Amino acid sequence: MRHIAGVLWRPRSTMAALVAAPTSLAAWIALLLIWLTLATGLLLTGIGRQALVDERVRVVEALGGHVDEAHYSRLQNSPPYGTYVTSGGRLLLTPPVTLLVAAGLMILARADGGRLPWPAALAVSVHASVVLVVQQLVATPLHYLRESITSPTNLAVFLPMLEEGTVAARLFGTIDVFGLWWMWLLALGVAAATGRPSRRYLGRLLSVYVLVAVMVTVGVAVMGGS
After folding, report:
1. Average pLDDT, integer, range 155-175
2. CB atoms within 10 A of CB 75
3. What is the domain extent for residue 162?
4. CB 167: neighbour CB atoms within 10 A?
5. How many domains, the chain?
6. What is the pLDDT of residue 226?
7. Rounded distance, CA 171 to CA 109, Å?
8. What pTM did the predictor assign?
9. C-alpha–C-alpha distance, residues 125 and 182, integer Å
10. Are 24 and 123 in contact (CB under 8 A)?
11. What is the mean pLDDT of residues 57-81?
């Protein structure tokens, strides 16, 4: 469990230690329990449930759909809890994504002539998600105060000059400050395994992150326009 704190205060040495002696199960369970507690606390409130409905409506309308009164009433009677997971960058915390990222780190290291065994790759992936849980610790009270479950730490929030609904606003709204921090930690983990500079991997990981953000933005723009 000391590695959880180490990721925040001594990230480089902590990732190196995890690669040398991988451990992940206890930290993974602890992080998921913290996230589950935060989610439950928010979604048990009326404000949290209404925020779910509002987010679903926003997404449907952004994709060119329409929510009539009957549909809206059904959403209020049966809040779309899955919307919580798919919004605000929380999808990155789900176990399937954690496993997929670990596999991707193995491939990244191997492509560079290095070796990152599965237990070490999983340990890096799990512990890098510490910052994603920190994001939820920051975001959850703000969700309640703002009555919205969109991320309060995406780049668009820090660029108020962007007009809401524009392609630029949507693109920067897809990229999160904590997501960039997460990428850096993943790069440190791969670098610890290969002995190469972390910036080498950070550039590659950021390219994938930005590419996904662009694809989501273009997809929403096209579907919304149609």
Report:
1. 83
2. 20
3. 2-225
4. 13
5. 1
6. 44
7. 29
8. 0.90
9. 9
10. yes
11. 85
| Two structure tokens written together for 132 | 């994603």
Strand partners, 176: 154
CB distance 168 to 187 below 8 Å? no
What whole-number distance in Å separates Cα of residue 209 and Cα of residue 183? 8
Residue 32 tokens, joined = 């998921």
Do residues 217 and 171 touch, judged by C-beta distance below 8 A? yes
Residue linked to tokens 């199960």:
25
- DSSP per-residue codes, 138-178: HHHHHHHHHT--S-TTBGGGG-TTSPTTSHHHHHHHH-BHH
- Rounded Cα distance between 210 and 226, Å, is 24
| Secondary element (H or E) of residue 48 | helix 46-62
Q: Hey, what are 5's tokens?
A: 């704190």
What the block records as the tokens of 7 is: 């990721």
Strand partners, 154: 176
13-31 residue pLDDT tens = 999 999 999 999 999 999 9
Q: Could you tell me the two tokens for 17?
A: 């230690």
What separation in angstroms does the CA of 151 have from each of 25, 81, 109? 27, 16, 31
The tokens of 194 are what? 């290969």
